[in-house]
Amino acid sequence: MVKLTETRLLRQQCYINGEWQSAAAEATFPVTNPADGAVLAEVPDMGTEEVRAAVGAAQAAWSGWRGRTAGDRAAVLRRWYDLIMANQEDLAALMTAEQGKPLGESRGEIAYAASFVEWFAEEGKRIYGDTIPAHRADTRIVVIKAPVGVCAAITPWNFPSAMITRKAAPALAAGCTMVVKPAGQTPLSALALAELADQAGIPPGVFNVVTGDSAVIGKALTDDPRVRKLSFTGSTETGKLLMRACAGTVKKISLELGGNAPFIVFDDADLDRAVEGAVSCKYRNSGQTCVCANRILVQDAVYDAFVGKFTAAVKSLKVADGFTEGAEQGPLIDMKAVEKSERLIRDALDKGATLLLGGKRHALGGTFFEPTILGNAVPAMRIAAEETFGPVAPVFRFRTETAAVDLANDTPYGLAAYFYSRDLGRVWRVAESLEYGMVGINTGIISTAAAPFGGIKESGIGREGSHYGIDEYVEIKYLCMGDV
Ligand code: ADP
């Protein structure tokens, strides 16, 4: 097992213009381990001027970077990918230390994060233009694609590496440059990626990481007219705030926000597969992902059978420090997250839910929480409307297919939805009726670099991953050629 102190990738300065820099007056803030509260490192608390300098560096680096061939950029990105994979163990250890997720999940996230770099290194070579039959005989219409320019990325703590590469890889592949502000809870993963970017030969200014106060850095980035695009992953509340802030300079935006995923089990489902899917979908990362099942909806006839099997499966999950062999549920990110789970459970129990499993803080103490299942959940409970972001699964009962779809769509969110059924007609009907950007059918895991990830309604704007993901970082430029 690699311990944090042994990692070669621990960096406690910001990466700006290819240099490691401290904040003015050496201001720092601590990074802690959510498993025990221990301080792991101190990283810079950067101010407005330093963020402006990072944007300036990104602006200055842009013309050189966009002037390279796509093949050159791909070769550099490919080296970054190779280095990330070669350092998978160290990166995973850093992640488990600062984020808490089990080491196995951290290794998985590093491979997932790297996969975006590999994917977009290739995809950058395929940013094709278009020719269009013209409206006049002496005219030609050509469409070319141009990189957007300096991009800002603001990323969350639940996927400290993948949420960065999912933005940076398409941006860099398309010829953009980037300033990343990682979440304050998990900056070490971001800084380690910067170290590897440096080793890969990504030129100074093309990829920058600044740490510090969210509001200060967020304002510096969104106020700056040189930043042409913001890509944000985080809460809907912060997303709305940033969307407003980007209006001042009409920036392009990609937002990947909160979800309230329904997980529907129909009476013709393979129940064992549905249970397996529900456990991985709900309890991955201790329930702290925006595509985690938030509401489990089960058809009347199979409700009792599903609940019995589901409860038995969840009971066997091993709650432990992420570095412990076989750990499946790490700590929650902070005490606020614990209190939110407690508040939602209390509200549900007050409104008639039955406690089937867990329900309280775990005996390990700190921010460890028992995997919890609530039966007889109903829409009036807050847990039906709010994104839980914790290991709490409310199970709802429904009678008909229409009732399930209505219940599933009764939310302002529209990120991921899941359902289990073996009836082909029902599969099509329900898949088309669910108002979500992504639908998992007979599977609880949908994320891959090859597919378009993103939401509708208040879950966001734009797509990440797949060939659609690179569109977010290019502008369409129309050339009208007369006098031909
Ligand atoms: P969470 O509640 O899951 O931490 P947030 O939306 O608050 O979700 O955080 C996601 C990212 O947005 C983090 O990097 C966080 O630091 C950043 N963030 C939070 N508030 C602001 C803000 N006012 N301006 C810019 N970034 C912010």
Automatic annotation (TrEMBL):
One of its GO terms (molecular function) is succinate-semialdehyde dehydrogenase (NAD+) activity. It holds the Pfam family Aldedh. The active site is at E256. SUPFAM superfamilies: ALDH-like. One of its GO terms (cellular component) is cytosol. It comes from the Bacteria. GO terms for biological process: gamma-aminobutyric acid catabolic process. Residues 20-478 form the Aldehyde dehydrogenase domain. Keywords: Oxidoreductase. The keyword Oxidoreductase applies. InterPro entries: Ald_DH/histidinol_DH, Ald_DH_C, Ald_DH_CS_CYS, Ald_DH_CS_GLU, Ald_DH_N, Aldehyde_DH_dom, Aldehyde_DH_Superfamily, Succ_semiAld_DH. Belongs to the aldehyde dehydrogenase family. PANTHER family: SUCCINATE-SEMIALDEHYDE DEHYDROGENASE, MITOCHONDRIAL. This is Succinic semialdehyde dehydrogenase.
